[in-house]
Design goal:
429 residues; alpha+beta; TIM Barrel; 5-stranded mixed sheet; 12 helices; 21 strands; binds zinc ion
Length: 429
């Protein structure tokens, strides 16, 4: 029986570790080096296990981080949602969320923030805003604003001014559902982002569950052999009642845009949200809320990595959450097929970092991915896959170039491959 920890200790105590990692620019050479040591590689189950031991012994303290889960796009009767803040909080607690940010259309609701508790737990409720220009034709370009702490809808007519105003107040701005398809059953064109002459925004809403539903419904309707009002409605019911079957990935255009912006050297964070409204759906005798808040809070969420646990006090917890959102310290998660809790993506070079951090490379810098269950894992730099592994729960890579590295994981669910985890990048320099 081989003891793995003593091997790592041996390595650290007998060799200057920085020298070892400088000599070892990639895994195969590491394996070769290991055979030079009086410990044989075949004593170890896997080469990457050895690499993990080295990472651990390089002083990685990333285990100290605290993971929280939230949803940051939803509506109340202040705009076009069905339930009030306290009712939504109850559903968020039932779904196991740590925080939610309510984003009513063109109204920043003051005075409702705080911890909401019941016998099952507590959730921190924060308020942001989803702003758009109500006289724009067609209606489009919705901007999510977090942390500005004031009403910004008067700036809606000019998206750049809106972004600048939010930033001036310390707020973070994300383009909501930036790519969406026209759906012929809806009485309005798509609500994608249309005003692209902008800069300085924080990031993209990479995955919006309700917008994904609209896009997939549009796809299914467009594939029908004939166009017929009754057939369209029946198809809509079928898709609406089985969203898990149809919702698979974020929009590819949004992923491509994100990669393009990262390749330009921009720091662009992403979030994943529900866009919950709790709207009842009526078709003949069928009357039900097809997507209750609680259901959506178990689907596409954003997980964050904080440096300290939440305290239970509104102000410090709010600031910690907003900072993590703005800097991209987390990932977009489709928690429905399998919980993403426990996912980790860390960088170890001259400095160490989590998602959203800038990490200085050295010759032995490594990127490490751990998933809570086996998945297909891809490490992507500026749109190109630099490392991948199938049906595994960890991936370790020694990068050779600086840049923005992000992780995508997919898993099979209900007979189809599904987007599961989309990490914010680690920026190597
Ligand atoms: Zn919207
Ligand atoms: Zn919305």
């Amino acid at each position: 029986m081989v003891k793995k920890r003593p091997y790592a200790n041996y390595l650290t105590t007998s060799f200057p570790l920085t020298a070892v990692t400088t000599l070892v620019p990639h895994v195969s050479q590491l394996a070769y080096c290991c055979t030079c040591f009086p410990i044989h590689l075949e004593n170890h189950a896997k080469r990457d296990t050895i690499l993990l031991l080295i990472i651990r012994d390089r002083g990685g303290k990333m285990d100290d981080l605290v993971e929280i889960k939230g949803n940051m796009h939803m509506h109340t009767p202040y705009s076009d949602g069905e339930k009030w803040h306290a009712e939504i909080a109850t559903e968020a607690i039932a779904a196991g969320l740590d925080f939610i940010i309510v984003t009513d259309h063109n109204v920043w609701v003051d005075g409702v923030e705080g911890y909401y508790e019941n016998e099952h737990g507590r959730v921190l409720v924060l308020c942001g805003e989803e702003v758009h220009h109500v006289r724009r034709e067609p209606q489009a370009s919705h901007l999510l604003i977090y942390g500005a702490e004031r009403e910004l809808s008067p700036c809606a007519a000019n998206p750049q001014e809106l972004i600048n105003a939010a930033q001036a107040c310390g707020g973070y701005t994300f383009l909501a559902h930036p790519h969406e398809k026209d759906c012929r059953l809806l009485p309005y064109p798509n609500l994608a982002w249309h005003d692209w002459q902008i800069e300085g925004y924080t990031g993209l809403e990479l995955w919006n569950y309700m917008s994904s539903f609209v896009c997939r419904l549009a796809d299914v309707l467009n594939r029908l052999p004939v166009q017929n009002a009754l057939l369209d409605k029946l198809t809509a019911v079928r898709v609406a009642l089985n969203p898990e079957k149809y919702i698979t990935f974020p929009e590819p255009e949004t992923l491509a845009l994100w990669d393009e912006l990262l390749a330009q050297g921009k720091q662009i964070s992403v979030v994943g949200n529900s866009d919950a409204h709790g709207t009842p759906f009526n078709l003949g005798p069928l009357h039900r809320v097809i997507y209750p808040y609680e259901y959506l809070f178990r689907a596409v969420n954003t997980h964050l990595m904080l440096t300290t646990p939440l305290t239970g006090d509104l102000e410090p917890d709010k600031q910690a959450i907003l900072r993590a959102i703005g800097r991209g310290h987390g990932w977009v998660a489709y928690d429905l097929p399998h919980p993403t809790k426990g996912f980790r993506f860390t960088g170890h070079g001259m400095s160490k970092g989590r998602m959203g951090d800038r990490v200085q490379m050295d010759a032995g810098a490594t990127l490490q991915v751990i998933t809570p269950t086996r998945a297909n894992i891809r490490l992507i730099r500026h749109g190109e896959i630099v490392a991948s592994i199938e049906n595994e729960s960890n991936l370790t890579h020694i990068p050779t170039q600086p840049g923005a590295y992000r992780v995508e994981c997919t898993i099979p669910y209900l007979g189809k491959e599904r987007g599961w985890i989309y990490s914010n990048p680690i920026y190597l320099w």
